[in-house]
């Protein structure tokens, strides 16, 4: 196992009816900005429930945060928050609302150009307002981590920042608030969670047995429970397990002390910026092809995954790896997330454009071996068609 430090300060408040506990987590004197997305939180009644829980607080609202949250939208919220002298931010939504709110929290007290905070993976952030989360979409893991992914279409950027000041103070996880998710977002959430586990698992062995077994446990839960959420959207236990799974997949625990990959995520950002493909859709396309192209560097873990996750024991090593990759693709498709670029109307002509963007963003040595060069990305994308 590799050396590591681990600290996660986010308090989780889990379960049905837990929204009414948020008042206990925010100072009575706080001026609260509630942030949300394009309307689902109003339609489902979650927003009203939050406002009732905060009766007596001075509240301002900012809605309209789009999926893959935009810098320009966030700057509007920052202006409002400064004007209203906000000192606590409460995100009500999925990864996009949470990430946008994290970036707001860093920008509001920052005196210089906000764009500087997106440079060098957010290392310039030395202070941020406190934030809380009411999660409505289990997928990103943002509710219990220090990351935010911010898009800036005018510059063709989607960038990840990571900073200890971005951990939420608390996150409310009420599984009943996910009952209204459309099938597309249920599938996206399960696939994104699955790939978060794989990004921290499918590398090379370092005798991280705790991490491996935890990761394998999460993968099994996703395979067992994922489709049940599509068939029976109001099954509480299914939703509860998927919600906790998404949080556990990216709160730092399974990735501590083991190598990590993240190349699929990084390449996926370019697909989202260029072609508007949903985040989970990008990685559903990329992962099977990446495992095939990077088979040698990931051989031991691919064989372990084949056996422990899919029960594949027969055949040559190459056959077992191929079978595991096929099972992975079938699983994504069973969650109704398509796994080919052509499914999203993207053709071979896009390949040089995607590679050019990665180069422009300095992403030329990706993956746990830094072996995913532009030439390797080209090969991967050809297999994605
Ligand atoms: O905008 P509204 O109307 O609220 O609708 C949203 C949105 O259209 C809808 N939705 C959310 N909760 C709902 C609901 N619809 C019905 N019922 C509910 N309960 O779902 C749509 C997608 O929401 P979004 O927040 O964009 O989805 P997700 O949680 O998948 O977040 C995606 C973003 O997270 C980033 C992605 O890059 C992307 O920008 N990620 C963040 C990470 C992190 N911070 O650690 C890691 C991830 O790898 C990921 O990159
Ligand atoms: Zn992701």
Key phrases:
385 residues, alpha/beta, Rossmann fold, Dehydroquinate synthase-like, alpha domain, 2 domains, 6-stranded parallel sheet, two-stranded antiparallel sheet, 13 helices, 8 strands, binds 5,6-dihydroxy-NADP, binds zinc ion
Span between termini: 37 Å
Output mean pLDDT.
Answer: 98
| Helix share bin | 40-55%
Radius of gyration: 20 Å
Strand content: 5-15%
Order of helical and strand elements: EEHHEHEHEEEEHHHHHHHHH
The top-level CATH class of the largest domain is Mainly Alpha
Q: Low-confidence parts lasting 5 or more residues at pLDDT below 50?
A: none
Largest beta-sheet details: 6 strands, parallel
CATH fold descriptor of the largest domain: Dehydroquinate synthase-like, alpha domain
* 3D shape: globular
Heterogens: 5,6-dihydroxy-NADP, zinc ion
Walk me through what this model shows.
It contains 13 helices and 8 strands. With 385 residues, it is α/β, with parallel strands linked by helices. It folds into 2 domains: 11-177, Rossmann fold (3-Layer(aba) Sandwich); 184-384, Dehydroquinate synthase-like - alpha domain (Dehydroquinate synthase-like, alpha domain). The chain has a 6-stranded parallel β-sheet with strand order 1-8-5-4-2-3, with helices on both faces. A two-stranded antiparallel ribbon has the order 6-7. The two termini are 37 Å apart. The model has no long low-confidence stretch (mean pLDDT 98). It binds 5,6-dihydroxy-NADP (NZQ) and zinc ion. 5,6-dihydroxy-NADP is lined by residues 37-41, 44, 67-68, 93-97, 99, 136-137, 139-142, 145, 147-149, 177-178, 180-181, 185, 188, 192, 250, 265, 279.
